[in-house]
Structure formats: C-alpha cells, structure tokens
TrEMBL record:
Residues 275-285 have a biased composition (Low complexity). GO terms for biological process: DNA restriction-modification system; methylation. InterPro entries: C5-Methyltransferase (IPR050390), C5_MeTfrase (IPR001525), SAM-dependent_MTases_sf (IPR029063). Belongs to the class I-like SAM-binding methyltransferase superfamily. C5-methyltransferase family. This is DNA (cytosine-5-)-methyltransferase. Residues 232-305 are annotated as: Disordered. It holds the Pfam family DNA_methylase. GO terms for molecular function: DNA (cytosine-5-)-methyltransferase activity. Gene3D superfamilies: DNA Methylase, subunit A, domain 2, Vaccinia Virus protein VP39.
C-alpha cells in the first residue's frame, strides 16, 4: 500500500488516481474525510499522532506526509519556528526508538508543531522491516531545515534523498506556491522532477525540451483577460449556503429559470464608479442592460486581478499571471477578485465603471490548486476553503510521485478548467 499521513481532502490521492494508483489516507478532520469519501478515496479518520504503526508493517511500499502547516506558515503566528528545536529533538529521539513526544509537547508554544515529527515515528517502525521503498514529504518553506534532518537519518538507513524548495508554477500549477520537498528512495537516485514550465517560455534546444510559459489564472479558469467571474445560480445553494456556482470556465445559459433559479452575473455585487478621491455612487450595470436589449456590449476598460488577502502587503496578480499562494482560515486571508482600470487615467478623464471586489469561489480556488472543477468538497464555506488552502496541488504531487511509480506525465493528464 501507499500510506498518506495527514491526507487532507485528497491532493496526493487525486494525483495518484491520475497515475493509476491509490493510497490509504490518515486524516482527523471530519470534513476533509467526507470530501475524501465522496471522491472515492480510502480513508481512516484518526489522529495520526495516536494511530499505531503495526497495521502497516510488511505492507507499505510508499509513505507520503504533508503535516499541518499552520504552526509554520506565514499566514499564521509561526510559533512552529519557536518550537523548532523541540521538533528536531523529537525527530532525533523517534529515529532512535525513543518516544519523548509527551514531554516535548508540554514545552511547545503551538501544539501542532510536533506533528511535523510524526512521520519519523512511522518511518522508524517501517524501517525495522525494510520499508518503505520510497518517501515523499511536503511542507511550507520554513520546514526545510527539518527535512534536512530527516534526510541525514534516511541516508543512514540506505535511502537516496533530495531536499529543496520547489515552485508549483514550474510544474503547470496556476499558482506560485513554494514548498519544501523531501524525496527519498531505496531503489533509485532521488532528484526533483524536471520543470515543465517557466516564467518566460523557453524553446527546445539541443540540450533538452523547452518549457511552456507558466499557466495563468485566465487559462486555468477558462476566462479571457477581462471576463467577469463565472455566473451563478441564485436558487438552491451549496453545502455552506449561498449560491451554488457552476464549474469554473462554464458558459452555460438557462432556457427556463422557473425551476432553476435566476441567472445573475458573478460577482453578485453592484458596479461602482470609483474616482481618484474615493468611490462614487453606485452605477447601473450598463453591460447587462445593453445585453438585455439585444445591443452589443462594449468592451470593458478594466481587467481582473486576484488579491491574496486583506492586508496591506497582499499579493495582487492579474489574470494573465498565476495566482500567489492561496491560503485561507482567517478573515484577513480571504482572496478576492478586484477589477482595475486597463490603462492609467489621463488628465481629468472620468474613471471607468468597474465592479466591486468579490470573494473567490471554492470552485475557482480548487481549480487554481489543480483540483477538478467538480471536486466534491464537503462542509460549509470556511471548512471547504480551509481544505483547499491546506492541500497539496495535485498536479505538483503527480510530478513528485510519478518517478516512484515508474510513470510519465503528459500534458493531457490534467484538465484545469471544466
């Protein structure tokens, strides 16, 4: 079997399904477990820190681990950095067969910090029977020193190991998500997969194939540079309430709204005329009126960008680029679509009519993580966004896992927009 610790909603599992394989995931969050079950993934709902290792001895080919990143992430308080010496001590003790977790946990500033040491408990016990054949682990960049400690121990057990930082955008993910990666194998030289994409497209040369340009949000979502985000159905609603969006990229039209709700543009927000001195009065949605009257709709003089959170230093990326790292879980971390004038204003020219900012939908966020647009997320909006933000992008995961499984990915293995 392939054992997936901290399996979440199934980023690694989705990648394995594309590669023709399956894992068994250990996960404690009930909503992530419900998502996994709906997606057809084998799951044990449990606390990884409490579950015994003996059921896996003599049966495990590969081990995957993406410990919770909240204690280390820049989106949180980063108490894991304070706890780092304690985590290193736990890894060292577990590698020697000494379980000091209880004593060390009492000294931690964040109870989640020590979860990054849990994979070593499984690895130590599996190593006693010559398993696993390979290991793949992923975390936020600040965990790289810990992965290097793991690497020293794994090499002493006969593994070839590589550790480093990879950018998900270099592997076709429409997001510049940087992650600390550990790759280890007993049967092959561990090395990072060759990048398939670059910030600027690279032509093929005598020394190897070229690389495509980074995948933009517009390309992933199936939008044009000035498209409005996808329309929604107002009737019914998703698991967390509110409108239930169509899959990203959809261009469906309703022939009968009596039973299916009212067709409205998304975002569901009034257009605003914003001046240089501040927002002005709400303006009528001219484009909708023109379209309803059968007249051509003029091209908008604004374009969409994605703002990563509400903070002053938020990352803002236009649709023509990949998104910044998507993370959720706190109100200040909400991602919103913002419309910006397509060109600077000249003199006293009146500012263009632009839509008000609106939140990204779960389907859009999932697609930007390279999940299918119809992925069966379970839970309310907050629970779903938390799952999406914490997941490994399946497309990155597939590139990391393919060499272990003797597979080769093709450009058609992932379809970003429905």
């Amino acid at each position: 079997m392939i054992l997936d610790l901290f399996a979440g909603p199934g980023g690694w599992s989705r990648a394995l399904s594309v590669l023709g394989a399956q894992d068994i995931g250990l996960e404690w969050d009930q909503w992530a477990c419900k998502t996994r079950t709906a997606a057809g993934q084998l799951t044990i709902q449990t606390d990884v820190a409490m579950y015994p290792t003996w059921p896996f001895l003599g049966r495990t080919r590969g081990l995957i681990a993406s410990p919770p990143c909240q204690a280390w992430s820049m989106a949180g308080k980063r108490l894991g950095l304070i706890d780092q010496p304690l985590v290193h001590q736990a890894v060292s003790d577990l590698a020697a067969g000494r379980d000091t977790r209880e004593a060390l946990l009492g000294a931690c500033q964040d109870v989640r910090s020590l979860l990054a040491a849990e994979p070593m408990r499984y690895l130590h016990d599996l190593n006693s029977v010559g398993e696993p054949e390979w290991v793949t682990m992923e975390e936020v960049p600040d965990v790289l020193p810990l992965w290097k400690q793991y690497a020293v121990i794994l090499r002493s057990w006969g593994f070839s190991v590589w550790t480093g930082i990879l950018n998900a955008a270099d592997y076709g993910v429409p997001q510049t998500r940087r992650r600390a990666i550990l790759l280890a194998s007993r049967v092959r030289t561990a090395q990072p997969p060759p990048p398939t994409h670059a910030q600027v497209a690279e032509p093929e040369t005598l020394f190897g194939p070229g690389r495509d340009r980074w995948v933009s949000m517009a390309e992933a979502l199936g939008w044009g540079a000035t498209d409005r985000p996808v329309p929604t159905i107002c009737a019914g609603g998703g698991p967390g309430g509110g409108a239930e969006p169509f899959p990203s990229g959809s261009r469906k039209a309703l022939s009968d709204t009596r039973d299916r709700g009212t067709w409205t543009p998304h975002p569901d927000a009034p257009l605003q005329r914003s001046g240089r001195a501040g927002a002005g009065p709400a303006a009528r949605p001219v484009a909708q009126d023109e379209q309803a009257a059968g007249r051509p709709v003029p091209e908008p003089d604004w374009s969409w960008s994605l703002r990563s959170n509400n903070q002053a230093h938020a990352t803002v990326r236009p649709l023509s680029e990949p998104a910044g790292t998507l993370f959720f879980g706190h109100r200040s971390n909400e991602c919103t679509w913002v419309a910006e004038p397509a060109a600077p204003l000249a003199g006293d020219a009146e500012s263009p009519v632009v839509p008000a900012p609106i939140r990204i939908t779960a389907q859009e966020a999932g697609v930007l993580q390279t999940f299918p647009a119809d992925y069966p997320w379970a839970g309310n909006k907050g629970q779903v966004f938390s799952q999406i933000g914490n997941a490994v992008p399946p497309r990155l995961a597939a590139h990391l896992l393919a060499p272990h499984l003797g597979k080769t990915l093709t450009p058609d293995d992932f379809t970003l927009a429905a």
